[in-house]
Amino acid sequence: MAHLLGAEALHLEFPTQVVFDSLTVGVNEGDRIGIVGRNGDGKSSLLSMLTGELIPNSGRVTRRTGVRVGFLDQSDILDGASTVGHVLVGDLADHEWAGDPKVRDVVGGLVADIAWDALVSTLSGGQRRRVQLAQLLMGDWDVIALDEPTNHLDVEGITWLAGHLKTRWARTSGGLLVVTHDRWFLDEVALTTWEVHDGIVEPFDGGYAAYILQRVERDRQAATMEAKRQNLMKKELAWLRRGAPARTSKPKFRIEAANQLIEDVPPLRNPIELAKLATARLGKEVVDLLDVSVSYDARPILRDIEWRIGPGERTGILGANGAGKSTLLGLIAGTVTPDSGRVKRGKTVKLAMLDQQAGILAAHEAEMVREVLAQLQTDFQVDGKDITPAQLLERLGFRREHLSARVGELSGGQRRRLQLLLTILSEPNVLVLDEPTNDVDTDMLAATEDLLDSWPGTLIVVSHDRYLLERVTDQQYAILDGRLRHLPGGVDEYLRLAKAAPASAGSNPTSSGGGSAGADLYTTQKEIAAAERKIAKIAKQIAALHVTMAEHDASDYAGLAELTTRLRALEAENAELEDRWLELSEFSE
């Protein structure tokens, strides 16, 4: 493969640390490289040196003559006085840029919802980030380097970006370097993974799933990592192997080796035991949203929401930016009052929310981390074992030297970890996580997921991180056109529905022959909603029956047989309903 760019004997140091010492790496035609590592270990610095934005203390960066390199870093470089259209296409007339399919694709994938004549200064931070990414992707580059490109993108945007990068160049041309904590995205676009750690860059074949396998093997063979870290990676690998089939079909993902490594790893969660514990802590009533609607400035945000949240449920919420996810969380938390309908809460509910504001840290800014920990309960249970708050924080990636730092001096990722710790140790029985992956690396995400596996309460997660949602929740819902819709088909189903939504919204049922079609569609949608309600009701009955069976006298064979018969009948009814739901969904497209 022809060389595109690289680095020879790079040395980079800052006043407090040596980041790299004699680093040599290369990027060739056809390379698609994902870069992972802990926050602060040098991922962004590596990209900046390779693209020429940061000059190393010694060594040199090599680049083939004529190679064009595009770089998206984490700084905002847009001119606030420019319009969106001018940033993206300059002074080109509409017919000129609209005739370029690449430009049309980027506009449709990233900025279709942003006004062309809007001033950049009037945009939100997320919108500015998308405009900046779109501007980069419209250029002709031989190498593209992206630093956290999925930040501020919703699930549809992340899926579009992955597809764009996979088809942007021919298989043996172009080069991609991407730093991201989005593990689904890594698996989609990366053919090689670089792990940045301890001043070096260690290469692995394949995307995130293959990297996890090789890392477990490396750690086991070298016997250099603590047992708890090995077990955590093995648990992560177990989920990857037992999850979506697509993950295990990646090139060079050695299935036999994976099976050998995880043969003694138990299931990630014991749903019966967790449901039993959650019911004991919460009772049968958690939060019910009963025919709830919310509007802002006469604009409907949520419409006719009917959702009964049960004890021990683990639910992921999907939706485009601005769809109403934060409003839905506000209804659950009691900070938003509905215009109609009512919200009913169980008497024993104690809710805690990990939001994006880090408000829980405000009272501790001047304190040292160890002083904050000293104020907390003395232990916490993980996988049936008691651990102290300091041990829990260590599991979340804190080093012992960080315990003497003041809260106000912590990095974004460290603050997020401490925020999660304080939220969990407030002893809620309903935990709401709003975009919990912000400012954290892949190791921290794996540790968080491991912690949540044994958390015995109701869990609600709003996130654009597809991997996280599929990993820690057992069911997903989406907000589409202001309504809450259950997703038996998970994230894939959401993407299909979201893609079809604009066409449906733009259709005119009163046009030629449309009256009858509109009526049929309305009837179908009503039946779909009824089926979803029945499926949700049966799911709760099945969960309750599992709890009953777990508590039942094991010697009462006749009673257990009767309970098993009832369970099988409910499962059969649920299967029929889901089949009917799928038929109706296909008709309504």
Secondary structure blueprint with pairings:
Elements: E1 3-14, E2 17-28, E3 32-37, H1 43-50, E4 58-63, E5 69-72, H2 84-89, H3 94-98, H4 101-111, H5 125-137, E6 143-147, H6 155-167, E7 175-179, H7 183-189, E8 192-197, E9 200-205, H8 208-222, H9 227-242, H10 245-248, H11 255-262, H12 271-282, E10 287-296, E11 299-309, E12 314-318, H13 325-333, E13 340-345, E14 351-354, H14 369-374, E15 380-382, E16 385-387, H15 389-395, H16 412-425, E17 430-434, H17 442-453, E18 458-462, H18 466-472, E19 475-480, E20 483-486, H19 490-506, H20 514-551, H21 557-588
Parallel strand pairs: 3-7, 3-8, 5-6, 6-7, 12-18, 12-19, 14-17, 17-18
Antiparallel strand pairs: 1-2, 1-4, 8-9, 10-11, 10-13, 15-16, 19-20
Helix pairs in contact: 4-5, 8-9, 9-11, 12-20, 20-21
Describe this structure in words.
The chain contains 21 helices and 20 strands. With 589 residues, it is α/β, with parallel strands linked by helices. The chain folds into 5 domains: 1-67 and 141-154 and 169-205, P-loop containing nucleotide triphosphate hydrolases (Rossmann fold, 3-Layer(aba) Sandwich); 69-139, no CATH class; 209-266, no CATH class; 271-492, 3-Layer(aba) Sandwich (Rossmann fold); 516-588. It is globular and about 80 Å long.
